[in-house]
Design goal:
Low-confidence stretches: 45-50, 272-286, 524-543, 588-596, 666-686
Distance between the termini: 69 Å
Radius of gyration: 34 Å
Strand content: under 5%
Strand order of the largest sheet: 1-2
Number of strands: 8
Mean pLDDT: 83
Amino acid sequence: LQVSVDQKHLAEARSGILSILHTIMSSVTLLWSVLHQADISDKPAAASAAATSNINLGSTKKLRQQILELLGPISMNHGAHFMAAIAYVWNERKQVKTPIRNKVIPVASEEQLLLVELVRSVSAMHTETVMQTVKEVLKQPPATAKDKKHISLEVCMLQFFYAYVQRIPVSSLVDSWPSLLVLLKDSMQLGLPAPGQFLILGVLNEFILKNPNLESKKDQRELQDVTHKVVEAIGTIAGSSLEPTTWLRRNLEVKASPQIVVDGTNLEADVEDLMLTVMEASSFTPSVYSVHALTLLAEVLAHLLDMVFYSDEKEKVIPLLVNIMHYVVPYLRNHSAHNAPSYRACIQLLSSLSGYQYTRRAWKKEAFDLFMDHTFFQMDASCVSHWRAIIDHLMTHDKTTFRDLITRVAVAQSSSLSLFTNRDAELEQRAMLLKRLAFTIYSSEVDQYQKYLPDIQERLVESLRLPQVPILHAQVFLFFRVLLLRMSPQHLTSLWPTMITELVQVFLLMEQELTADEDISRTSGPSVAGLETTYSGGNGFSTSYNSQRWLNLYLSACKFLDLALALPPESLPQFQMYRWAFIPEASDDSGLEVRRQGTHQREFKPYVVRLVKLLRKRAKKNPEEDCSTKTIPWEPGHLMLTLYVIRSMEQLLPFFNLLSQVFNSKTSCRTGPVYSHNPTDSSFTGSKEGHKLESQKVFWSRARQNIEEMVEKDFLEGLIKT
């Protein structure tokens, strides 16, 4: 201090040290983490906070103190350089492979969190000071930091700040609200890269989760304004994979460009790789952050807006949501495989918004239009649960929408099939409406639409009156399955005769087709390849051999029988009276003998037994399609038939084989699961029955969940492979 130093040399020395401050900070952080590890390993859980460990450099307490004495003056005099160095080290310490994927905002690693602890330990770095310094770094990064071209300093700085906000006390956060507000406002004007804007929304969301209510009305208004701006900015990024349609410039459609899946940790690296690939391959640049923006909005938007806008201010939310929906709907209209990531994120967003009744005005019409679109069921299986929630919210809070759907089905049925219209198209329209009505009921609670059952039954009977329409009748059987799952048994009593009659009709058709096929091959030898054989059954139906629509109907009817057998008998008491007609069952009199006017007639054989015999014959004639050796497993409470499409009737042989065997055995379980007690429970004789009932409940609850997942997939068309 006594020696006079040339200020020029001093400035050079200072700038020299500041230029390597990130390296110094990296070393200091490493030492800090060593001290942290030493304290964890040496200190017993019950030891007092004052206790200190020793490493070969000395006492950990003294070393911590010396680190803080070194960093204190630097942070006071060169705050921006200090925080920029922290951001640099933050990037250095990120996890190479993250265990948690599908997060837009990456989860901080243990080493990164030590940086947060280090900054919080520096006495000069109060919460407000940190916020102001972060803002300074974002606005004007130090010259030395700009040289590090391979990292986005702003994004690393905000990742640190997001973790910092998560870990400071609520009181510190509330006290520094003015500084945070300025930081949020200024950040929106800086043109930050997309990952930086995601972090701004993350910080805002974190603040609102910790402190939902601001005392001052002025503060609340400012919070609402900044929320509006941040959400709109993310909405713009979300819409960046859209472009105007050719005809109407106001309408948007999805660009035909690749979309990357979400992984926050490697976000920028993934994006850079994709950009290079695409730029080499084509002339356009994809909008690579749109999926991430949509995913983040899906995670936070609905709850965020509900917290920021009080009950008397919900109207202010609608214009913002209308803008967001302007970007969301085009993604939901596009069912192509390359749009699947966006579709998933958008349906999750719409599902979360639909849970808040005040938002209905912003999405109700669009959601209903999407539901009525002919491509609606072309989606990934993971999206169905979200659509169920949306349709349930849509119909529950607005009964007119549900009545409108029933009316549409009725109108479609009452309009006669004109000679001047495309008959197939009209029938497909009827089937489509019936399927949507079934999905609506499937999305509801048990008995929610019980009062509409007479109307629904009328619609189903009307559909069955049309002969030779397998496309429509297949949907009726899907509807029957939905009703078994969504209506109490007592409400379905009047529908059972129709359900059983239709099932018998389909099995008779199958039998006639197999018999006719056998007769044709016997009389005329091998048929000419590629020709369809058409014949009429005794009931006026005619079918085309192996026509895909008829095969779909056969599969749908078999799945109905499969479900009726899988559900517990007490939940389908009416069906138990008809079981004997379909499946052989073990009984003392080994079958049903019919005697009339003294003549002994042949024993009645259940449909399953008859069909198994015919299918085995056909399978022998077509060795390439022989499914007789294939077996399918059987478990009580599980569906046996898990195919979604069949290309020939022989594919049903393993199912019929199983039915003819499993229920015909006296040892088989015909009435649900057999509960076997654990030997260790033998001392608790009094509670055995209770345990048994409880176990049965748990069993059927799980079984029902599995069954519903299978039925859910039957609604889907053209599954997007994930």
